[in-house]
Design a protein that fits this description.
CATH class of chain B: Mainly Alpha
Oligomer: heterodimer
Strand content of chain A: under 5%
CATH topology of chain B: Cytochrome C Oxidase, Chain A
Order of helices and strands of chain A: HHH
Radius of gyration of chain A: 18 Å
Strand content of chain B: under 5%
CATH superfamily of chain B: Cytochrome c oxidase-like, subunit I domain
Radius of gyration of chain B: 23 Å
Shape of chain A: flat
Number of strands of chain B: 0
Helix content of chain A: over 70%
Number of domains of chain A: 2
Structural class of chain A: mainly alpha
Largest sheet of chain B: none
Order of helices and strands of chain B: HHHHHHHHHHHHHHHHHH
Number of helices of chain B: 18
Shape of chain B: globular
Distance between the termini of chain B: 16 Å
Number of domains of chain B: 1
Chain lengths: 100, 545
């Protein structure tokens, strides 16, 4: 295998407008998280908070961290880390759910 | 294969060796500021074994406390502090960084035919993070007294104690970053810097093990960092995330801690498993049976290792359903471990075995790791774990796995690669007999703990019932025999590295790339970039005869 040099990011650069839009979306989602925390939704509180966190982290990872424009291998790396994290969440919450 | 005997000479006269200073710096600065992976590996080795010596000394003192019931040597407070310090030093400063930062740093680029790791400066930065983190942990000695929580920093006690937990935890936090950066460096190196022709399945199995380990370091260590930060925030600002009275959950701490710390066991044991494959292939003159199965089992262990943390918490108040799931998953991890052991044994079958010291260390590993592994199944079963949890049985199991398994192979690897690192040989006869001494000492030290634990002796107690006196004395005697063996081993290795007879590039007849360059290796490892044609354990004489 040839020793490869690290390449620059591929694809069109993200415009400032997109960055601002993403930032506004993140702020809005943070506000929703705060509001939802004040409403008694029983077991759904956690699910909704996690879904919002998932959307926020996807935006940050894809746009701010440029994973969207990276090679497939980096996307696989991020997916593996995300997958492991999901399994960890699942097992931990399963314990809390079944605990008396 | 016989050693190539050359007249004794000073190491520094070997032309172009990495031990020669090049560049503007001289003396110690040439080492401390070097980005050469080999020098960084040596610096890590010196640091790690310094901490190991301190950890051993603390262990000896802990054993000595058991010379008679009633704790006449130290009081309970000092004993608590000593076992905490023993655990923190041995776990966070020795076995977790362990083989990857020392021998991994030295041999990963050599084994894949690269000039260095992908990010040499980041590598040096990782080293200094480790040094700074270690210094912060040791500072905890002088801030409000020694932490006395045990190395696990369990809440609620770690939130309540007035000892220097915050400082110690912050030190571990910094060392964790060193580990993450090393993982990123190794992963990138393996992906991008392999020599021409070295496809994934032509990589040595030590490289595969480091690859799996790097993934664990990158994904699991941040969880520890966050958990430790939560402890600091809880202690400093009184936030009740782990405090039941404030609506928090103390069991959540244990979840978070073991989400890291169980995979960390695989950070400790996967690299030694890789080295076992290297040593067996070299000293049996055979290719490794089931090469792909061993490579994949490293990844499988790394993955399944994430899913079994709950077996540390069977009596912590988890739900029964979670207990059963974690117990089941724990048994599954035995499958890839078994794949490795059976393939190693199959590799030896009809091999031309040369029982040199590194190979004898592997034999000791097989026995000790098997005892440790099988006793782990007893602890992974729900019913038996309830009886044995927090007893000496757990202490024995853990030391058989990590010390008898991981650290014995660390020693074996030093015996294997020392001639490559320094171009000199130690006294092999002393090394072989000394291993026997250490093996006897180790078993005398730890095997009685299985019996005492089974009979109900709790761990972390500064005293014990008179019925355990005989077994405690056998264990103490074992600790002295083991330490005597360790002293002889280090003297033999250090003497060999400095004044041993010179050896050629390949004294053992190894087949992987590090044996194709000079001993000690030159600054950028190879005169010319190697091209890989054969699989890693291609013994030409075996294939051509």
């Amino acid at each position: 295998m040839e020793q490869q040099t690290l390449t620059e990011h591929k694809g069109a650069p993200t415009s400032y407008g997109i960055y601002v839009l993403i930032w506004l979306a993140l702020m809005a989602l943070t506000a929703i998280t705060a509001v939802v925390a004040g409403i008694n939704l029983a077991a759904f509180t956690l699910v909704i908070a996690l879904l919002i966190a998932l959307v926020k982290s996807s935006l940050v990872v894809n746009v701010f961290m440029h994973v969207k424009y990276e090679d497939k291998i980096f996307k696989i790396f991020v997916a593996i880390a995300g997958g492991v994290l999901s399994v960890i969440f699942l097992l931990t919450f399963a314990d809390v759910y079944f605990r008396r | 294969m016989a050693d190539i005997a050359l007249p004794p000479q000073d190491i520094s006269v070997v032309e172009g060796s990495y031990l020669e200073n090049i560049g503007k710096h001289k003396g110690l600065a040439a080492w401390l500021l070097s980005t050469d992976h080999k020098r960084i590996g040596i610096m890590y080795t010196v640091m790690l074994f310094s901490f190991f010596s301190v950890g051993v000394l603390l262990g000896i003192l802990l054993r000595l406390e058991m010379i008679s019931p009633g704790g006449k040597l130290f009081g309970p407070e000092v004993y608590n502090a000593l076992f905490t310090l023993h655990g923190v030093i041995m776990i966070f400063l020795f076995v977790i960084p362990g083989i990857p930062v020392t021998l991994g740093n030295f041999f990963l680029p050599l084994q894949i035919g690269a000039k260095d790791v992908a990010f040499p400066r980041l590598n040096l930065f990782s080293f200094y993070l480790y040094v700074i983190g270690s210094a912060v942990i040791l500072t905890a000695l002088f801030v409000n007294g020694l932490p006395d929580t045990g190395w696990t920093f369990y809440v609620p006690y770690s939130l309540r104690t007035t000892t220097g937990v915050t400082v110690a935890v912050f030190g571990v936090f910094i060392v964790g970053f060193s580990s993450i950066l090393t993982g990123i460096n190794f992963l990138t190196t393996i992906h991008r810097l392999r020599a021409p022709g070295m496809t994934w399945f032509k990589m040595p199995l030590f490289v595969w093990a480091l690859y799996a380990t790097s993934w664990v370091q990158i994904i699991a260590t941040p969880v520890l960092a966050i958990t430790l930060l939560l402890i600091i925030i809880s202690r400093v600002f009184g936030i009740g995330i782990f405090n039941a009275a404030a609506g928090g959950d103390p069991v959540l701490y244990q979840h978070l801690f073991w989400i890291y710390s169980h995979p960390a066991v695989y950070i400790m044991i996967l690299p030694p498993m890789g080295i076992v494959s290297e040593i067996i292939a070299t000293f049996t003159r055979r290719t490794i049976f089931g090469y792909k199965a061993i490579a994949m089992s490293s990844l499988a262990i790394a993955f399944i290792g994430y899913l079994v943390w709950g077996h540390h918490m069977f009596v912590a108040g988890m739900s029964q359903q979670a207990d059963m799931v974690f117990s089941f998953l724990t048994f599954i991890v035995a499958i890839p471990s078994g794949i490795k052991v059976f393939n190693w044994v199959a590799s030896m079958y009809k091999g031309s075995i040369d029982p040199q010291p590194p190979f004898l260390f592997v034999m000791a590993f097989m026995v000790l790791f098997s005892i440790g592994g099988l006793s782990g199944l007893v602890l992974g079963s729900l019913a038996t774990d309830v009886h044995l949890t927090a007893t000496y049985f757990v202490v024995a199991h853990f030391h058989y796995i990590i010390f008898g398994g991981g650290v014995f192979i660390f020693f074996g690897a030093l015996h294997y690669w020392l001639p490559k690192m320094f171009g000199r040989m130690y006294d092999k006869k002393i090394a072989s007999w000394d291993l026997l001494v250490m093996f006897i000492g180790f078993n005398l030290l730890y095997f009685p703990m299985f019996i005492m634990g089974y009979e109900g002796m709790p761990r972390r107690y500064f005293t014990y019932l008179p019925q355990f006196e005989t077994l405690q004395h056998i264990s103490i005697a074992g600790s002295w025999i083991l330490v005597a063996g360790l002293i002889v081993m280090f003297v033999n290795l250090i003497h060999g590295a400095i004044k041993g007879p010179r050896v050629g590039p390949n004294p053992w007849g190894g087949t992987t790339l590090e044996w194709k360059t000079a001993s000690p290796p030159i600054h950028e490892n190879f005169e010319e970039e190697p091209v890989v044609i054969h699989e890693p354990y291609y013994h030409e004489e075996a294939f051509t005869s």
